[in-house]
Amino acid sequence: MNAPLKAREPITVPVALGNRAYEIVIGRGLLGSLGGAIKALRPGARAVVVTDENVAAHHLAATEAALTAAGIASSRIVVAPGEGSKTVATFERVCEDIIAARIERGDLAVALGGGVIGDLTGFAASCVRRGIDFVQVPTSLLAQVDSSVGGKTGINSRHGKNLIGAFHQPVLVVADTALLDTLPVREFRAGYAEVAKYGLLGDAAFFAWLEANWQDMFAGGPAREHAIAVCCRAKAGIVARDERETGERALLNLGHTFGHALEAGCGFSQRLLHGEAVALGMVMAFDFSARKGLCSAADAARARAHLAAVGLPTHVKQVPGGVPGVDALMDLIAQDKKVKRGALTFILVRGIGQAFIEHNVDAAEVRAFLSGAVA
Ligand code: GLY
Questions:
Q1: 150 in contact with ligand 1, CB cutoff 6 A
Q2: Binning pLDDT at 50, 70 and 90, where does residue 335 land?
Q3: Alpha-carbon distance 306 to 110, whole Å?
Q4: How much is the average pLDDT of 36-64?
C-alpha cells in the first residue's frame, strides 16, 4: 500500500454485473479518447451530451471534439448548474430534448458533469424510449469515486432528495482525473470526504495510505488515480454483490444519516456542501459508536484528525450560521429513507475500516448523543 506510485497508465476497473457489466476507466487526459471508447463499444451510435453551464464552459468543446474525431455525430443539452436541476421540470426538458435530437434505442446519452448531471441524465436515459444507454463522464471528485458508479439515478421530490429515480447502470464510466484540476479546492475537499469514507468503512490500510498520501492526491500527482481506483474497486465490488441495496450497499451510507440531516437543516445550501456534511456525519458516526462502546475513542479521534487535517469540518460549530437544534435534526433523521417501520438504521463502526449496519437504533440514544454533539 505504501509503495511509491509511478504508473500513469489508465486504470480499468470492471463492474461485474452480468449482461449489464461495464468498465470504469481512470486516468489523466482520458477525455480525448472518449469518442474512440464509445465507438468501440457502440459502433455507429449517435450521442447527446448532457451537461451544465459551468462544466460546459470548461469541458464541452473538448468533449464534442473527442466525439467528432471518432466520427460520432452529437448534440448537446445544457442545464443550469446545481441541485436545482434535479427537478421534474428539468427532467422533462432533458427527456424532450433527447427525443427532439432523434436519439434512438441504439444511441446513447453522455452525462458530462458532477453528481447532479449524472443522476439527471441517467434517470432520463432510463425512461426515454423505455431506456437508452448512457456513459458517465464525471467531472467532480465526488462523482468519480461514488455517484457515477453503481447505477443510482434520479431527481428530487418536494418530500426529499432522490425520491424519484431508477437503477440504471451506465455502459461505461470515463474518469479523466485532469478534469479535477479546475475544481475549486472546497469542492475537491468535499469530494475527498467520500474518498476517506471508503477507508473508514472497509479498508483500514487504504485509510492509513490516505493519511500519508492525501497531499499528492490534492496536488494532482499519481496518488490521485490510485485513490480513485481504490474507491471505484471497492464500490464496484459492493455494487456487484448488492446492486439494489438490500444489504451491504447500505455501508456506502456511512456518515450519511447524520450528514443528510445536517445538509437538509442547512437548506442544501452553500453553507454546507454534501461532502462536508458527510465528513461531519462520519465523525458523528464514529463518536456515536465510541459512546456506545463499539469502537475505541482513539479510532474516533483518528478519523476526526484526518478529516480536520485536509480542512474538512469536523464540528458543527464550523458550519457558518450554525445547524438546527436537536428536535429539528431528530425530525430530519426520522424522515430519512433508512427508517423502516419507525426503527432507526445507522451505519456504525467497530473501528477504522470496520463499518456495519445497525438496525433498531434507539432514538432516545441518538437524541442524547446529538444533545452533546450540537451543543
Ligand atoms: N452513493 C451510495 C450508493 O451508490 O449506494
A1: yes
A2: confident
A3: 35
A4: 98
Coil, helix or strand at residue 189: helix
Indicate if the pLDDT at residue 5 is higher than 60.
Answer: no
Instruction: Compute how many other C-beta atoms are within 10 angstroms of the C-beta atom of residue 324.
Output: 18
In ligand 1, the atom with minimum distance to the C-alpha of 245 is: 5
pLDDT of residue 158: 84
DSSP-derived 3-state class of residue 62: helix
Under a CB-based contact definition with an 8 Å cutoff, are residues 50 and 90 in contact?
no
CA 43/CA 327 separation, integer angstroms: 56
The proportion of the chain whose per-residue pLDDT surpasses 70, expressed as a percent, equals 96
At 277, list the grid cell: 456534511
Q: How far is CA 115 from CA 50, 154, 332, in A?
A: 12, 10, 22
Task: Indicate whether residue 194 lines ligand 1 (CB < 6 A).
Answer: no
d(CA 33, CA 326): 50
Query: Cell 484540476 sits at which residue?
Result: 181
Catalytic residue numbers?
130, 152, 194, 235, 245, 249, 253, 256, 260, 274
Q: How far apart are CA 319 and CA 314, in angstroms?
A: 9
The one-character DSSP state at 203 is -
Q: Among the atoms of ligand 1, which is closest to the Cα of residue 147?
A: 1
